[in-house]
Design a protein that fits this description.
The longest helix has 34 residues. This protein has ten helices and no strands. It is mainly alpha-helical. The radius of gyration is 18 Å and the shape is globular. α3 packs antiparallel against α5 and α6 runs antiparallel to α7. It starts with a helix and ends with a helix. Helix content is 77%, strand content 0%. The chain has one domain.
């Protein structure tokens, strides 16, 4: 009983809305986002020189996900201030950012860990960076799920992010903007594509399952 109570505390609103926790997650994700864009630097440069300019937003998958989660923490930190929760337009922007944070952080968090694990299973040697990336991406997926019930997105926000997610999958595997992979996975690219699209579906379904919690959060805030 005591352990159950202890675990439930980490799911509680009082714990998740603790300002020290939120500021810690903000800085961790912001620094991780910056590192992520640097990690994609060579691929971004190559894309810039060989492909149309509009391909660029589809290249850095994980950093963009963590960028939106970083922004979502600001909404929680300054909820009700600076007019961020007032007005229909502001509410829609917030809903889209939070839906994007949940769907893409969960998707690419699981995706990166799965790709690293799959490459290891196929004989690719792992280094310290692989373990670091596995830990950080597991954290991406976990934090998105933890905070999902505090978000205030609606069905239309999920639909918009779903369009982006499937468009990103098309760009990754139709136009080959996917993150650079080890040779053992490049040889199995069709399987990687199927897994990625499946993760898109799973991530969107996860957001849909969170809708009742989001509705309750909006009603509690507005009530």
């Amino acid at each position: 009983m005591r352990s159950a109570v202890s675990l439930s505390f980490f799911w509680s609103r009082s714990f998740l809305m603790n300002r020290f926790l939120l500021w810690s997650l903000f800085w961790i994700n912001l620094l991780g986002t910056i590192y992520g864009y640097f990690w994609y630097g060579d691929q971004l440069k190559l894309t810039l020189h060989t492909e149309p300019l509009w391909y660029l937003p589809f290249v850095p998958d994980s950093p963009t996900a963590s960028l939106f989660f970083t922004m979502s923490t600001l909404y929680l930190l300054y909820e009700g201030k600076f007019g961020w929760s007032a007005g229909k337009a502001a509410s829609r922007i917030r809903g889209f950012i939070e839906a994007f944070a949940l769907i893409t952080s969960f998707k690419y968090g699981i995706w990166a860990v799965s790709m690293i694990g799959a490459s290891a299973a196929l004989g690719n040697a792992l280094d310290w960076q692989d373990y670091m990336l596995s830990t950080s991406h597991l954290g991406m997926a976990a934090e998105a799920l933890l905070f999902a019930r505090l978000y205030r997105f609606r069905l239309v926000d999920i639909a918009l992010v779903a369009c982006w997610s499937f468009a990103n999958d098309y760009m990754d595997y139709g136009k080959l903007t996917y993150p650079w992979l080890p040779d053992v996975l490049n040889e199995r690219l069709h399987g990687v594509e199927e897994f990625t699209v499946g993760l898109s579906v799973a991530s969107i379904l996860t957001a849909l399952l969170c809708l009742p919690f989001n509705r309750a959060s909006r009603e509690r805030k507005n009530g």
